[in-house]
Amino acid sequence: MNKRKLGSQGLVVSAEGLGCMGMSQSYGPADEQESLATIDRALELGIDFFDTAEVYGPYTNEELVGRALRGKRDKVVIATKFGFNIVDGKPAGLDSKHVRRAVEGSLTRLGTDYIDLLYQHRVDPEVPIEEVVGDMAALVVEGKVRFLGLSEAGEQTIQRAHAVHPITALQSEYSLWERNLEPRIIPLLRELGIGLVPFSPLGRGFLAGSVKRAEEYPEGDFRRNDPRFQGENFDANMRTAAIVREIGTKHHATPATIALAWLLHKGDDIVPIPGTKRRKYLEENAAAASIALSAEEIATLDDALRPEAIAGPRYSANNQRWIDR
After folding, report:
1. Rounded to an integer, what is the distance from CA 210 to the centroid of its chain?
2. Which domains does the chain possess?
3. Model confidence pLDDT, tens digit, residues 203-253
4. Which side of the chain, N or C, has fewer Cβ within a 10 Å radius?
5. Catalytic residue (one of 56, 59, 119, 174)
């Protein structure tokens, strides 16, 4: 797999990364052996960029990634995130006051002495971003962190953070399914030389064509409460996503492969991190790097999945409150 430069600070990663969250939570039961095999297969395919967070599990996902990458540290780029207050094994609001404590815990669980890319997981309105980035930057000076990132941050926060210490990447949801970054955030990132790491690049599976209605998922599965998977929204979105399947048929590729190829065509400063815990889907995702979409196909996808064509908000009101815009 080809490499891409993420931001202007010198971080080079594979053109696709691997989101590891689903290996520990949110999308059905865990399968540790298959998850470990999936990470091994990612390395074989040239994927070297692995994304985790302290809140995934919580904690268990970092431990899993650490075990999987033991003895391979110099061959991989590890990104993790801090910023939630975790109480009794569940996130209970935001906490960016204890950056050092969070990072020390992540280093221990990952079994490493440095983190390649450290993100603030969500912007904490109770702690000035200048203070948070200052704490993060101190860890860069100490060699415990190499590059800094933000997640789901708005324009003003990005600008204020970048003025304290260069921000290498913004991690936010971006896909054919969710394009709220296009009008203002992506132009700002390019102005400042900040890369974009899209999470949920397959619309939590909707663009892969393998989803069910919300009520068919078990309790604890994120999709059970996703407005876009519910009722009339689900029906409308299935019709809208049909164009992805049609273009996939022309390329003898899965819808997931086409959706990721679209993202990769949107700029060399974009590195999606599709999440999976199965080798089969990992291989489908990795195939996107070899798909050449025509300008006409890209325009067709842009139009068919324009923001007003998607039914329902991307988050419930409870989850939306943690988004900084």
Report:
1. 19
2. 3-320 (3.20.20.100)
3. 998 899 888 999 999 888 889 999 999 999 999 999 999 999 999 999 999
4. C
5. 56
Tell me the backbone φ, ψ of residue 46, rounded to 5 degrees. 90, 10
Record the tokens describing residue 261, joined without a space.
């190829």
Of residues 181, 157, 179, 182, the one with CA closest to residue 167: 157
pLDDT, average across residues 145-151: 98
User: 26: exposed, middle or buried (C-beta count within 10 Å: 0-12, 13-18, 19+)?
Assistant: middle
Helical H segments across the chain, by residue range: 32-44, 60-68, 99-110, 129-141, 155-164, 185-192, 231-240, 242-250, 255-264, 279-286, 295-304, 317-320
b/e per residue, 241-279, with b = 16+ CB within 10 A?
A: bebbeebbeeeebbbbbbbbbbbbbbeebbbbbbbbbbb
For residue 2, what are the CA distances in angstroms to 56, 99, 267?
28, 33, 14
Q: How far is CA 98 from CA 53, 85, 89, 247, in A?
A: 15, 10, 17, 47
Side chain identity at 263, as an amino acid letter?
L
Question: What is the distance between the alpha carbons of residues 305 and 214, in angstroms, rounded to a whole number?
Answer: 21
Q: Residue 56 catalytic?
A: yes
309-322 as b/e: b if 16+ CB within 10 A:
ebbbebbeeeeeeb
Beta bridge partners of residue 71, listed in sequence order: none
The answer to whether the CB of 125 falls within 8 A of the CB of 146 is no
Residue 87: Cβ-neighbour burial (10 angstroms; 0-12, 13-18, 19+) = exposed
Structure confidence at residue 274 (pLDDT): 97
Could you count the other beta carbons within 10 Å of the beta carbon of residue 6? 27
Question: Look-up: residue for tokens 């998977």?
Answer: 229
Query: In angstroms, rounded to a whole number, what is the distance separating the alpha carbons of residues 227 and 213?
Result: 10
Mean pLDDT of 189-213: 94
Enter the tokens of residue 13. 């990663």
End-to-end CA gap in the chain: 34
Closest to 4 (Cα-Cα) out of 196, 319, 270: 270
